[in-house]
Design a protein that fits this description.
The protein is α+β, with helices and mostly antiparallel strands and 453 residues long. It is built from 10 helices and 12 strands. The protein has 4 domains: 104 residues, no CATH class; 90 residues, Beta-Lactamase, CATH 3.30.450; 87 residues; 144 residues, 2-Layer Sandwich (Heat Shock Protein 90), CATH 3.30.565.10. Helix 1 packs antiparallel against helix 2, helix 2 runs parallel beside helix 3 and helix 8 runs parallel beside helix 9. The protein starts with a helix and ends with a strand. It catalyses: ATP + protein L-histidine = ADP + protein N-phospho-L-histidine.
């Protein structure tokens, strides 16, 4: 139908042009120059109008394609034009415009939806150009974990986190990497996962970064607890008969000693009897000590339920101060307590928390023994809706090679230590859904930081 109307319009214009040419030739033979000049001007106008009529659709199409190239879908074409062929063309253009506009809106909505989801999750995500190292996109969680306000290139991480920079530049797609890193929030373990993809013919690497310290700590604690349950069970099964036998032998030797006193000539050698009795006594004491040790760890592994109450930190510190100050004063160690604000509180098991602080203070006391002005500071404060307790000393510090092992059960650097204090403290903090972190500098001191959510 459009073609028929276009051909009709061309036919009418062609006939009118021929008629004007006939009139112009007619006036030319009559030497009527005014009419001839007017006829030529009219014919030129007709040719110009015919050219516009023929190329009007092409101009409209070019205008539409230029708008598509510039992704300008807001342009509207007049659907009420008197030209029926252009009217149909404008309707089609507007329909295509509306379709592209709807697709663009849906694409923007999906992008916004996915971006909102990626911003809400606690896993850090960054998209990096593999060739240039430029950051294409990064979510807030990634910047929050690393404590950086913005990130334009992973090269900017080289000075602050060299180990992380090396990991980001060397990690392979579909691979996982566990990295230990000291972050603003403390020593952490980060799990890196990478995926490669191509966008606009550029190779990109998508890296997910998650702080798995709590998960790893919980897994390690559970593994140690299982090991301790087996060990305590075997120790008690093996030592209990020894203790019982030593007790029986002790009673038998006591009976022989009493018999010796009544019948000196019939009794065995007195020195041999005394040595045997002393040996059995030592076996009995050590066996009972091992049984108490195993019983303590067995009870520790069973203590998975907390007696939670509202604990006022100032009252907790007063209790610790009254308990520990006489012992510390006797050895010349100064104890300072500071709570800010005074009404600071947390939810926890007060008995277990006292046990944690006592263990940390006893460790601090050993660390400051050789210092000229030994001092232990017990401090508590609130930070970002969290309650933090610190035990700080000005002792000798912890050697770097021991930092990885201080929370392992039975590990100790002291000759008279049992290696259970810090592992117990960590276990109790995990039960409270909290964390324990340590910062140390050799020759300056150590700070143990307890964080309660």
């Amino acid at each position: 139908m459009i073609f028929k109307r276009l051909e009709l319009g061309l036919l009418v214009r062609f006939i009118l042009l021929l008629g004007m040419m006939y009139l112009t030739v007619h006036y030319l033979t009559q030497f009527t120059w005014l009419q001839v000049g007017s006829g030529i001007l009219v014919m030129l106008a007709q040719v110009w109008e015919l050219a516009l009529y023929v190329t009007r659709s092409n101009n409209e199409l070019a205008k539409f394609l230029q708008a598509v190239k510039q992704r300008d879908f807001s342009q509207r074409f007049n659907e009420h034009t008197t030209n029926s062929s252009l009217r149909q063309l404008h309707v089609a253009f507007n329909l295509i415009n509306d379709t592209y506009k709807q697709l663009h809106i849906e694409k923007e909505a999906q992008f916004l939806y996915m971006q909102t989801i990626l911003q809400l999750i606690d896993t850090g995500i960054v998209a990096v150009d593999e060739e240039s190292g430029e950051v294409e996109w990064v979510n807030d969680a990634f910047k929050k974990i690393l404590g950086v306000p913005y990130l334009k290139s992973i090269a900017s991480l080289e000075m602050r986190y060299p180990a992380l920079y090396t990991a980001l530049t060397s990690i392979k797609p579909e691979h996982n990497l566990l990295l230990k890193l000291k972050l603003p929030a403390g020593q952490s373990q980060l799990l890196l996962t990478a995926t490669a993809f191509t966008m606009q013919q550029r190779p990109l690497l998508l890296v997910a970064l998650k702080n798995v310290s709590a998960t790893v700590d919980a897994t390690e604690t559970e593994a140690w607890q299982k090991l301790l349950r087996v060990m305590t069970h075997e120790i008690m099964n093996s030592v209990a008969p020894i203790a019982s036998l030593a007790d029986s032998l002790g009673r038998h030797l006591q009976h022989e000693r009493e018999k010796q006193e009544k019948e000196p000539d019939a009794a065995p050698d007195a020195d041999l009897l005394q040595d045997t009795e002393e040996g059995i006594s030592i076996i009995k004491k050590r066996s009972e000590g091992l049984l108490r040790f195993a019983h303590f760890y067995r009870n520790l592994n069973k203590s998975q339920h907390l007696l939670l109450t509202t604990v006022y930190v100032q009252e907790l510190f007063n209790s610790i101060d009254g308990l520990m100050r006489p012992q510390l004063n006797e050895q010349g160690v100064e104890l300072l307590c500071n709570v800010s604000p005074q009404n600071l509180q947390l939810s926890g098991d007060v008995n277990l928390l006292e046990q944690v602080l006592i263990n940390l203070i006893l460790n601090a006391k050993k660390a400051v023994q050789e210092r000229p002005q030994p001092q232990i500071i017990l401090a508590a404060y609130g930070e970002n809706s969290k309650t933090i307790i610190e035990v700080q000393d000005n002792g000798s510090g912890i050697p770097e090679e021991l930092m990885e092992s201080i929370f392992i059960p039975f590990f100790t650097s002291h000759k008279d230590g049992s290696g259970i204090g810090l592992s117990l403290a960590k276990h109790i903090m995990l039960l409270h859904k909290g964390s324990i972190e340590v910062e140390t500098e050799e020759g300056v001191g150590t700070v143990f930081k307890l964080t309660f959510i």
